[in-house]
Amino acid sequence: MNELTDHKYMTVTGIAEVLGVTAEAIRKHVRELFPNVISNGITTYLNEEQITEIKKRMIPTTRVEGAVTRIDKAEVIAKAIRYIKEELEDAKAEVETLRIQLDESIDWYSVKRIQSMGHFPGADPRNLWRPVKAWSIENEYETKRIPDPNYEHGVLCYHKDAWEGAYGIRLG
Hints:
Layout: E1 2-3, E2 9-11, H1 12-19, H2 23-33, E3 45-47, H3 48-57, H4 62-66, E4 67-68, H5 70-101, E5 108-110, H6 111-116, H7 125-138, E6 143-148, E7 151-159, H8 160-167
Helix pairs in contact: 1-2, 2-3, 7-8
């Protein structure tokens, strides 16, 4: 990997050597991007930000792609951080889905779980869900269906707020 910015400033010729292009190719980009910087007969010095902009404008070659500035490194790191954050959010969503499936979520409860906690002893579980579902729809809360080996289509889970709204049960 070629380091473009070992120094605070580099000359057009120095940049051209590192990138493996002609000095005139660099001058062309300097004239387009920074017209006030270049003057005939005077050595032109460019800072890291300017070098990075020129490098981005150049047609990628193996040498240009291999030359890295701190800004290039920071951009790659920022992309990696964004990717990791997205992956983390996906993993958190998957963990919550698994918690719900295991009936261990602190926010989502099935009728089966509510009864196992001692609520509605002896009540027919086939009738307990109706008020909770009605409350959920009325208040725009979603329901979640989780797999359950005892039920062909799985089990519906309702948010803890729906249980409180429908039956006054405080959960979580």
